[in-house]
């Protein structure tokens, strides 16, 4: 591998030599279900709070469960599929996954900025931003806490 790529991988703690046990399929399944339910509940509660605080957002298209639920489910499932990959390629998976979660969340805020720029309600977009942040928080914590890596030799 070229030296520059090797240095970049090392900087991001991608070493392909984890010294830990991977989360079990049962742990990953439980964490995924918790992340999905928790994220959808957070979305629902934030929409209710958003409409209560900003009554003019009542009926906002992006606050419809059919609108936000499908995007939430897709995003959470992708994150949940990424966690076991990260645990296999890094000996510091929580460190790497945390930074990836921040990066992905920032990228996913770009459509919010775009719809705001195009004239969507600033109050509505503000709530959408909080929904993205809540989903990231719920999903990250569900995965790293309910499907953790464990040192070799330790019992689960």
Summed up, the helix count is 6
Low-confidence stretches: none
Structural class by helix and strand composition? mainly alpha
Question: What portion of residues is helical?
Answer: over 70%
The biggest sheet, with number of strands, parallel, antiparallel or mixed sense and barrel status, is: 2 strands, antiparallel
Strand content: under 5%
- The count of domains is 1
Enumerate the strands of the largest sheet in spatial order, edge to edge or round the barrel.
1-2
**Overall number of strands:** 2
Q: Rg, please?
A: 18 Å
**How would you sum up the global shape?**
flat
Average residue pLDDT? 93
Distance between the termini: 36 Å
Element order, helices and strands?
HEHHHHHE
Describe this structure in words.
By secondary structure, the protein is mainly α. The protein has one domain (20-148). It is built from six helices and two strands. The protein has a two-stranded antiparallel sheet with strand order 1-2. The model has no long low-confidence stretch (mean pLDDT 93).
Blueprint of the fold:
Elements: H1 3-11, E1 20-21, H2 25-53, H3 65-89, H4 93-108, H5 110-117, H6 122-146, E2 150-151
Antiparallel strand pairs: 1-2
Helix pairs in contact: 2-3, 2-6, 3-4, 3-6, 4-6, 5-6
């Amino acid at each position: 591998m070229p030296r520059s790529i090797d240095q970049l991988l090392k900087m991001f703690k991608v070493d392909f030599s984890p010294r830990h046990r991977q989360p079990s399929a049962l742990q990953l399944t439980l964490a995924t279900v918790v992340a999905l339910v928790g994220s959808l509940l957070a979305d629902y509660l934030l929409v209710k709070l958003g409409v209560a605080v900003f009554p003019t957002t009542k009926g906002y298209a992006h606050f419809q469960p059919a609108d936000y639920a499908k995007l939430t489910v897709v995003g959470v499932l992708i994150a949940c599929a990424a966690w076991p990959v990260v645990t296999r390629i890094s000996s510091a998976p929580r460190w790497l996954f945390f930074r990836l979660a921040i990066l992905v969340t920032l990228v996913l805020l770009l459509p919010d900025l775009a719809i705001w720029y195009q004239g969507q309600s600033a109050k509505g977009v503000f709530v959408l931003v909080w929904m993205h942040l809540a989903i990231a928080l719920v999903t990250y914590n569900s995965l790293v806490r309910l499907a953790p890596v464990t040192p070799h030799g330790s019992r689960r």
